[in-house]
């Protein structure tokens, strides 16, 4: 109950839709108790099935369990007073620059400004990971910034792992930009908190993010921290291609599974170094135990800068 927020303590800007999924919508809004603080408000579309409402409540439960972390979108509170009418509102911290997928794809000029020589000699222009304002007011992307985001996502994922939470849907669409050099992980809609078993077997579901899923998740619906590592690799592939769709041109058929079973993988992103591509390939090892953990991934990336 510590997170309960009353209906008259916030406003929803219904004309400012931030995102929309199959059954959830995210609006911009504001807390209006003491000061006015911008928030993002996640709710369900009117008249959805009870199971969808329950899914949003389970997402809320995961978020309460997660505590504060600088690379996880913070829960501000929730309004559950209309639960019987089929309505719930989850208030989270507002990330003004939207999601990473849109940001990567946004400017065509991104690709022009990305200096190919940048990643061939990363030692040339050292920049501190903590130096938030190094890039000034420009939207120009460069190799160091892409690595910085990757490190931050690995740190957020270490926090999830320490809380025994499997994300289950890690992708750039679920990474938000708090500012241009600070990203946060969001959308725990498909996440599961592990209780006593160390992996989670999901019942068949119709809409799976198959391009991001590990082979064992596709084959046997098994979700573990190591299947999150696979998705992390696909997320980094999106980052280092500046937002391409993984497996371009492929569609969801059983052929996709045999593609992976033949040990075929995503090709090397245009903006990835050889070392970076080696790291991605390790995330997609058929054997989950051979994949690096999030701590090791952070350490490998810290020497890539
Ligand atoms: N889209 C989805 N969630 C969001 C948030 N918390 N801030 C900004 N845009 C979002």
Structure keywords:
single chain, 305 residues, alpha+beta, two-stranded antiparallel ribbon, 10 helices, 18% strand, globular, binds adenine, Receptor protein-tyrosine kinase
Report the mean per-residue pLDDT as an integer: 87
- Unique bound compounds: adenine
Helix/strand structural class: alpha+beta
User: For this entry, what is the oligomeric state of its chains?
Assistant: single chain
Sheet with the most strands?
5 strands, antiparallel
Order of helices and strands: EEEHEEHHHHEEEEEHEHHHH
Q: Per the principal axes of the C-alpha atoms, what is the gross shape?
A: globular
**Total number of beta strands:** 11
Strand order of the largest sheet: 1-2-3-5-4
Helix content: 25-40%
Question: For the CA atoms, what is the radius of gyration?
Answer: 20 Å
Report strand %.
Answer: 15-25%
Low-confidence blocks of residues: 121-137
Total of helices: 10
Distance between the termini: 43 Å
Protein name: Receptor protein-tyrosine kinase
Subcellular location: Endomembrane system; Membrane
């Amino acid at each position: 109950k510590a997170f309960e927020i009353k209906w008259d303590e916030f406003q929803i800007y219904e004309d400012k839709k931030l995102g929309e999924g199959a059954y959830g919508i995210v609006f911009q809004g504001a807390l209006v108790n003491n000061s006015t603080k911008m928030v993002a408000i996640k709710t369900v579309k009117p008249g959805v099935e009870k199971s969808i409402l329950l899914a949003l409540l389970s997402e809320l439960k995961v978020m309460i369990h997660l505590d504060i972390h600088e690379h996880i979108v913070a829960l501000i509170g929730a309004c559950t007073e209309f639960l019987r009418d089929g309505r719930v509102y989850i208030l989270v911290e507002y990330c003004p620059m939207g999601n990473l997928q849109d940001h990567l794809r946004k400017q065509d000029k991104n690709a022009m400004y990305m200096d190919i020589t940048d990643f061939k000699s990363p030692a040339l222009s050292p920049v501190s990971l903590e130096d938030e304002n190094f890039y000034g007011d420009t939207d120009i992307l460069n190799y160091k910034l892409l690595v910085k985001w990757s490190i931050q996502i690995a740190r957020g994922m270490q926090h999830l792992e320490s809380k025994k939470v499997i994300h289950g849907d890690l992708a750039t669409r679920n990474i938000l930009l708090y500012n241009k050099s600070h990203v946060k992980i969001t959308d725990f809609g498909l996440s599961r908190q592990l209780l006593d078993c160390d992996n989670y077997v999901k019942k068949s579901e119709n809409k799976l993010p198959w391009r991001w899923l590990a082979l064992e998740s596709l084959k046997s619906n098994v979700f573990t921290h190591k299947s999150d590592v696979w998705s992390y690799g696909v997320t980094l592939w999106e980052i280092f291609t500046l937002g391409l769709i993984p497996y371009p041109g492929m569609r969801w058929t059983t052929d996709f599974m045999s593609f992976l079973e033949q040990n075929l993988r995503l090709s090397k992103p245009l903006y990835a170094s050889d070392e970076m591509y080696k790291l991605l390939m390790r995330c997609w090892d058929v054997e989950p135990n051979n994949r690096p953990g999030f701590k090791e991934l952070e350490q490998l990336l810290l020497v890539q800068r």
